[in-house]
Design brief:
The strands form two sheets. Strands 1-9-6-11-4-3-2 form a seven-stranded antiparallel sheet. The radius of gyration is 19 Å and the shape is globular. It is α+β, with helices and mostly antiparallel strands and about 280 residues long. The protein is built from eight helices and twelve strands. It starts with a helix and ends in a 10-residue tail after the last strand. Strand 2 and strand 3 form a beta hairpin. The protein is about 30% helix and about 25% strand. InterPro entries: Phytyl_CoA_dOase-like. This is Phytanoyl-CoA dioxygenase.
Amino acid sequence: MTQTQQWYVDFHNQGYGVIKQALSASLLNQLQQLSLQVMENTTALADNEQQLERIAVGQYQGTRFVSRVNDLFLFAPQFIDLLAQPNIIQIAEHIIGEPVLPIYESLLVKHPWDNAFDWHRDVNTNTTDTILTVGVYLDDAYAEQGALKVLAGSHLNTKTVCNYKRDLTSGHIKAHHVDVKAAEVVFHHARTIHGSNKQKSDSQRRTIYFEFRGLSHIHNNPNFPKRWVEQRQALVDTVKNAAQERRYDQAIPSHFYDCKIIIDAAEYCFEPDCVADK
């Protein structure tokens, strides 16, 4: 078995995997600068009470800050270049076993003062179809920076998040902490239970997130209107065509996000006697 084949076997068994050095140094630098611009622009929009349906804002010591930007291509269509990276969409298609479409794209910023993200599944559905969450890391993410932690294999059964948290509390299972460096990409099954601890460093952590689903799943799901699917398919076709000069204004037209979809709710556990930080 080759190293690549072993990676896929491990992913299917554990529900997550890391691709090392997925981005070139030049692309990483470009995305880091672009994300700073997005954070500055969206903070200004939020200060003017604009685009708040897409921008998650908080306040720390009297200053507002942006923690998440949804519908990311609206604010920086250059991020579509990530979809052309062979270490992202091709791997997603290999894992799922068919052509895929990106369901959403967002920028998550974890600040030094941010709290933990409790254990959860990204989708609260028992579908047998593989749904992938892909995180492209623009900064190092180690334990002190609230790195990702997962419960390996939790995507393979229907045990609730609450049951898993009880197992953590009793010491029957242990979490896997996933330290990654900037330019690395983490794939995890959307039903893999995961979270992150409180930030304990002075640096922020920026991650670009995509969710990918197979075309057969999308076509059989009434939550995805035909017009929305056609727009997403046109986008993927554009970024896959390496011979075609990238025109961001054409790839992401002004009406790209007009058609709304319903995304599956996440699964959390709110039992007060369960502890998450294990």
